[in-house]
């Protein structure tokens, strides 16, 4: 099995755009994806002056990747209300979901859709809990694990940053294949919206 290191952030728009490619990769038994969350945005309210930039970037992402940005999300970004983005709570949810048996790419997908399509407030633990319950996870177990998840999350992010330095990774999303001890960056952007060509390209790397 060939390893693929995936450097990402749940709140990264381009990572959301790449989610269909990650799904193809995750469903190929020849590969093992190792997820490296980057902690891109510690919990903070986004300044209204920056929100138009976000919406413009999202339009570019949607055009290139065919990813869908929902009306609820766009309305929330454009509103006069507070718009909080939090990579840390969503990363904790990503890790706990896996611990409770949800496949990594599926956990990431549901987080991304909840944010980028439904405009949910994923900086709030009660919202994340509802998300977990909607996936069939036990609320009591979820809350117990979330309560103790912060230290592990910080360790994961620190480890990701160290690997990013070693592998000369400068941004998200980045895919690096590890085969026979050799590391090679996977060029994924030419395959946005082209899942069959993407799968054929991945097959050529085996």
UniProtKB/TrEMBL annotation:
What InterPro entries does the annotation carry? DSBA-like_thioredoxin_dom, Thioredoxin-like_sf
In what residue span(s) does the DSBA-like thioredoxin domain sit?
A: 4-180
What are the TM regions of this chain, as residue ranges?
none
Gene Ontology molecular-function annotations:
isomerase activity; oxidoreductase activity
Cross-referenced Pfam families:
DSBA
Query: Magnesium: is it a keyword of this entry?
Result: no
SUPFAM superfamilies reported in the protein's UniProt record = Thioredoxin-like (SSF52833)
Keyword annotations from UniProtKB, A to Z: Isomerase
What is the protein's given name? Protein-disulfide isomerase
Q: Which organism is it from?
A: Marinomonas primoryensis
């Amino acid at each position: 099995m060939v390893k693929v290191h995936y450097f990402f952030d749940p709140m990264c728009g381009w990572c959301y755009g790449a989610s269909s490619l990650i799904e193809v990769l995750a469903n190929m038994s020849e590969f093992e994806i190792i997820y490296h969350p980057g902690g891109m945005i510690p919990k903070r309210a986004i300044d209204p002056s920056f929100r138009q930039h976000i919406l413009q970037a999202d339009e570019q992402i949607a055009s290139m990747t065919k990813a869908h940005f929902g009306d609820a999300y766009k309305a929330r970004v454009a509103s006069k209300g507070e718009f909080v983005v939090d990579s840390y709570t969503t990363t904790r949810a990503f890790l706990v979901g896996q611990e409770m048996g949800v496949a990594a790419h599926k956990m990431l997908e549901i987080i991304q859709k909840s944010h980028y399509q439904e405009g949910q407030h994923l900086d709030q633990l009660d919202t994340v809990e509802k998300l977990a319950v909607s996936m069939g996870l036990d609320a009591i177990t979820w809350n117990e694990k979330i309560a103790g998840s912060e230290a592990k999350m910080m360790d994961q992010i620190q480890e990701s940053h160290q690997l990013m330095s070693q592998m000369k990774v400068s941004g998200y999303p980045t895919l690096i294949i590890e085969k026979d001890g050799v590391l090679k960056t996977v060029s994924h952007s030419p395959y946005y919206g082209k899942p069959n060509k993407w799968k054929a390209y991945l097959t050529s790397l085996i």
